[in-house]
Amino acid sequence: MLVSVICIMLPSLVFASFAAPPVEETVSECTEIFNHENGKFHEQFDLLNPYQQFSMYTMCNLSCVYGRLAIRARNNLSSVSGMVAGMKKELDPAIVQQSEQMARFMNYQWQAREKEPPGEQEITKLGTMLKKRWADMITSLAANNIEEAVEYCPGKGQDSIRKMFQSLSEKTRNEIGKNMKNIRLLKFDKDTAYYLPIQVTVGTRNPPLVVYKNMYGYGWTLYSFPLWDKNGKPIPVEW
Prior knowledge:
This protein is α+β, with helices and mostly antiparallel strands.
């Protein structure tokens, strides 16, 4: 269990020699504990001892991890924040300090990895993943399944994008789904991918921009969702 990495450490540990596991493993473990209905979550959380609870809470709140958690997992994290704050006062200060230092160092390693320029193979693999994610979201929108479509957007932007989808008529949502099914790469930076929709129906409208950003370390999220106004002008919406 990953919490053991945090809880069982020697005072002489040299951080520079420690290799943080892939962030996906941490996200998976946080999801396993926190992404449950309220009652089930507390059952799982109560199985951990106080040190493990504190360490797990600390790890799941790291920026590289938190941004990839489902809303329910984030809500469960918030629900135990007061308990963990009180628990922290009762734990061995030396172990608490070590846990926090280790967590910060792992977060630093994840961020440093993300700054490395991607190779051609990585860009191709990433492009395949982002195009599928886009197609899945558009398919949900075309089927007027707004909640499912919203799940493809980052947590802090979900309310805005939900209102935007809800403001569209069923016919318009269906047309967008049919006309913007695929995207093509325009430009790729280290943490930002710019795409243009491949329009099935080509008219006078300029194709709007689709932007994905890697904001949390290995966590690519839709950053800008494009829509057209009633006059056919592109409206890139960012949050």
